[in-house]
Specification:
By secondary structure, this protein is an alpha+beta fold. It folds into two domains: 4-73, Alpha-Beta Plaits (2-Layer Sandwich); 79-126, LysM domain (Membrane-bound Lytic Murein Transglycosylase D, Chain A, Roll), CATH 3.10.350. The chain has helices at residues 4-10, 12-20, 47-60, 89-97, 103-109, and strands spanning 27-34, 37-44, 67-73, 79-82, 123-126. It has a three-stranded mixed beta sheet with strand order 1-2-3. Strands 4-5 form a two-stranded antiparallel ribbon. The N and C termini lie far apart (38 Å).
């Protein structure tokens, strides 16, 4: 029989990744055992965030054979984002993609000619890659 606490620990990075985006509406609804698998149910606001969650799943276990997931995308492909104090495109790219070097993809998708010139309160869209 599978051990719930052991599986929760194994996939802790997945639940924490979802919680990282709670300010955008991501949430974990259920974490329990389903037979010998961890059952994880939740929702994310976009394909961008869903891709980040998938990265966390594959990092925990590339085969994820002991995980049954029901993670629903409640929005579209892109993720709307409002620039906050202290943000730059590299920091935003690191948050959404796990890779700061993807800042140019955000700049291109938003027609930002100079990535160093973003303003607090500016609305941008984070594209799904």
């Amino acid at each position: 029989m599978a051990d719930l606490e052991q599986l929760k620990s194994k996939y802790a990075g997945v639940t924490s990744t979802i919680q990282e985006f709670s300010d955008l509406g991501a949430k974990v609804d259920q974490v329990d055992l389903e037979g010998d698998k961890l059952h994880l149910k939740g929702s994310v606001p976009s394909k961008v965030v869903l891709n980040r969650v998938w990265d966390a799943i594959k990092q925990a276990d590339p085969s994820y054979s002991d995980l049954h997931h029901e993670i629903v995308n409640t929005g579209g492909d892109e993720q709307p984002y409002t620039v906050k104090s202290g943000d730059n495109l590299s920091k935003i790219a690191k948050h959404f993609y796990g890779n700061a070097n993807k800042y140019s993809d955000i700049a291109k998708a938003n027609n930002i000619s100079n990535p160093d010139l973003i303003k607090v309160g500016q609305q941008i869209n984070i594209p799904a890659l």
